[in-house]
Structures are given as C-alpha cells and as structure tokens.
Amino acid sequence: MNRYPTIWGGGQLLAFSGMDGTTDYESGLCLRTAFNGYAFELKRDNHTGEDPMIRYTGPEPETIELTGDFFRFYADGKVSSGVLVDSVHLLLEGAFEVDPHDLFEVARNGEKLLVAPKGHLRKEWLDAGLPEEIRKRAKFLDSASLPEDVPESVRRTILKALSQLKTQIYSPEGQIRHFWSTPDRWPHKKIWLWDSVFHAIGMRHYNPALARDLVSAVFDLQQENGLIPLCGDPSRIHPLTQPPVLSLAMKLIHETDPAPGWIAELAPKLERYLKWIMANRDSDGAGLVEWAISASKDCRSGESGMDNSPRFDCALQLDAPDFNAFLAFECEQLAAFLPKKRNSWLGHHHRLCKLMNERLWSEEQGLYVDYDVLNHRRTDILSSAGFLPLLCGAATPEQAARMARHLTDPETFGTPLRVPSVARSNTDAYRKDMWRGPVWVNINYLIALGLERYGYRALARNIVQETLREEEKWYQECGTFFEFYDDRKEVHPRQLERKGMPPDGKYHPFHQVFHDYGWSATLYLEMIHRKEWR
Questions:
Q1: For domain 281-406, which architecture applies?
Q2: Where are the domains of the chain?
Q3: CA-CA distance, 185 to 179, in Å (whole number)?
Q4: Residue 275 backbone phi and psi in degrees, to 5
C-alpha cells in the first residue's frame, strides 16, 4: 500500500513541520489546495485580496501523492514534485507555474522553482535535490506503525490524519518553550488550550514525548495569577480561558508512557489554574462556574469552545454543565496527581457533582441543562453539553440511564449521525451552523468516555463507530477532515454554515467549515487505536 495520502481535494493545508526543523510563526509559508483544478493557494495572514496560485500545468495525473509537506503528480511516466524544504521555502520541479505577487518571491533554475515570502528567499535551495528532501519529510509517515486488523480505507485515513497532525506542529518559539500545535496552520494558526489536549491525545500513540510537549506548551502560557489562556502565540495571549481538560491528556499520555516527573512538574501548575477558575468564574458565589459571555451574536461564548451555541443566546451568566463537569474531572484527576492533597481535591470534586445535581439536573428533561444565575431558572436548551457530567461521575445510575435513552431517541439526540450539538426537539434553536445542530468529534469522544464510566460500552462504541465511519466517508470523497458534520446527514460538510453566512456574500475563511481540522484528525487516531471502538 502507498504510505502517502493520494486523494486530491480543495482545502487541504501544507506547511513545514516543527518535527523536521525550526518553524517561523510570523513568516512561515502555508499552502492550501484549490477547489478548482490542480493548484495551491499561497496563504498570508490578513491578506484580503486574491491569493497567488501555484498551478500544475502537466497532463491529467494518473496518481497524486499529497501529504502535509510534499506532493507528487505522476503523469505520462514523469513526476512533478513539490516539498517544503524549510519553514519559508517551497521547492518545485516539473510542470508548475507560479502567479506573480508582491508578497512572494520566485527563483528559477531549469525545471526547478523556489517560492518564499518576500524578503526570505535563499536561492541556494535551488541546488537541493527534491527526492532527498521528500525522503526527509516522509520519515514520520514511513515509520508510523499502523493497525494491521483494519481495512485499507481505514489505513489510508490514518495516514492522512498523521500527515495532517505532523504539519500542525511548531517548534519552540518566544514564550512557548516546547513543541506546540495549532488547530490548523491557516486561518487559526495560534496555540489553543483544548485543541492542544486533543492533539496530544492522538499523538501519544506515535510519539509520547512530543505529546507531553504539546501539553507542556499550554502551561508555558500560564500567567502569574494562574490563568491558562484560551489561545496565544510566541508573543501574545488571549485574556479568556477555554475548557479545562488538561488532566485528561496528562492521564492518558502517562498511561501510554509513564513519566512521573512530568506529572509532578505540571500538577502544581494545574492546581493554580483550577484555583483561578474557582476564584474568577463563579459570579454568584454559589459554587458552580460560568463561562465568560460576550455581546457578539455569532460568538457569545468563545471561552466555552461552543462559540455560537443557542445556550448562550439570551442569558448573560449560566452555571454550565460542561464547564463544571470539566472542572470536577480535573479536580478528581488532580487528587491522583497530588496524593498529599488528595482529600482536598476530592472534596472539590464531590462538591461540584452535588451542586450540578441540585441546580443543573432537569428531572423533567432527563438531562443536565444550564442554569441562568440572573433569572434563577434552568434554561430549556437541550445540548450535547448536558451529557458531559457523565465524564466526571456526577450522575446517579438512574440519571445516567435517562441520559443514555436520549442518545437513541430520534426526537432528541438519536439523529442519523450522533451526537447533535442541539437536541432535535429544540426546533427553534436548530440550524446547520457550528454548535446549533452539527456534530463535533471531540464532544462525541468525551461523551463516549462518560458512557463507558457508567457501563454503557455498547452505546459508546456505536457512537464512536458512527463518528469514525462519517470521517472516513468524507475523507475518501474530499481528502480532508472537517471541523464538524451534519447530524441529519442531509448537507455536505462544505455547505454547512459557520457563524452565519459571510456578511457580504463573499468567501470568508471564518464563515466556512474549516478543512484539515486538527482534533477531527487526532481524535480519529485516538478512537481507531482502541480495538473495542473500531
């Protein structure tokens, strides 16, 4: 079997990986496959005009090898190739032409072309041999151990996920002292808290040391007061936070490749972070925490990660089942990481679980919901967040049974593709838009873990298998992992909305489902590596 992905499709991202050398956050080159014809768009931050293109001009290819950092077009016994030789240089040989553009420079030597951002061109790269440079880039895929007991289509999807994950890795830079990852090299580009966790969970199966770095990098951004920011880059941070799921990655990586010293180093930092959350996200002092809310109608709670969920449409302060479930899970794990403080952190875990059952459990709905702390009432939006208290063990067996029934009920969450971000019964809230209906791989993964905790292993396996098959289907058709998928299986992922349609009717990257999305790929790797879930 060819060890490299071979499916051409628009939206696939290419960049130089920190696994192969030093990256450049500000100036690094990023390409995206075009949606029309065999071409690559050269992407630049904050560039609003037409993207310059690199076009393949040869005969119709019989085969295309397309990874995250090199590509080869095979046609009529000839090969036309391209490879990222470092963070800012793309070396091409064969049937290619490059659009002129004032943001990029191009040098030529015979059939070789060298492309770099303006001011970065080093013509000596024209002397490099493309086959050798491709061999260097291919080492990670060549050496990856793939499951033997899966169909070839699954193995090919695994290779795509690995290739994508590799090129989302940056080398240490500025305030980030470890290797780190990004949800996508364009347009997100920064390091994000919970994305990094999910990337590390997938990477642990291939490089546990690198997986540890991806988590440690998040702690590199921790502030003196304990805050770990939502996102950041080598020189800046965001003032909000994001779902606290760090201990999940710490626990799973440690199980794969024990590193007690690493756990001992990070545990006190995690403790400071959890104390910051408790001190800064409990507005009414009742013991449960609330996500920060903004006035933006398309992103009222970026801190929650569920940016535009209808959960946040009307209320300003919500005791949230997902936030408190994550926090309780972190407390439970921290008790294991800090044995001398075990009782104290288990006390926080038990307290949060008790309060969730008192304030967030809806006996009428049979699910956890948000509580409006200003109007003193539970909300009526049933969302996928309501299942996450299973993760921390808050639910009683009776409550868990009612929640499990929702996942097979076609009127609520038993949709053709589970688990929808909003229940089918919330008809006024539903849209084909991000967190207003579509399915997210990370939430399915967390719900499956919660179901397993309560013994619902068959249900967890069914949800995971549905998720894996959907990802495989669209990879085989489009060559990419999408940010989210349609719960009704009615709409192509590319046609789903993202925070509404572009305001001017024109293409805008943040109003289109992201392609080559990080955790969709890395959690595919995580789930496919569990034999009981395949």
A1: Alpha/alpha barrel (1.50)
A2: 13-142, 281-406, 432-534
A3: 15
A4: -65, -35
Residue 385 contacts residue 323 (beta carbons within 8 Å): no
Residue 48 — pLDDT band, cuts 50, 70, 90?
Answer: low
Q: Is the dihedral of CA 442, 444, 448, 454 positive or negative?
A: positive
**215-259 pLDDT, tens per residue?**
999 999 999 999 999 999 999 999 999 999 999 999 999 999 999
The one-letter code for the residue type at 348 is: H
Enter the tokens of residue 148.
């033997």
d(CA 461, CA 410): 18
Helix (H) or strand (E) holding 15: strand 13-15
Q: Over 80: is that where the pLDDT of 503 sits?
A: no
What one-letter code names the amino acid at 225?
Answer: N
DSSP assignments along 397-460, one per residue: HHHHHHHHHHTT-TTTT--SSS-BSB-TT-TTT--SBGGGS-B-HHHHHHHHHHHHHTT-HHHH
Query: Which strand (E) or helix (H) includes residue 263?
Result: helix 260-280
* Residue 141, amino acid: L
pTM of the shown model = 0.97
| Tokens 């041999």, located at residue | 129
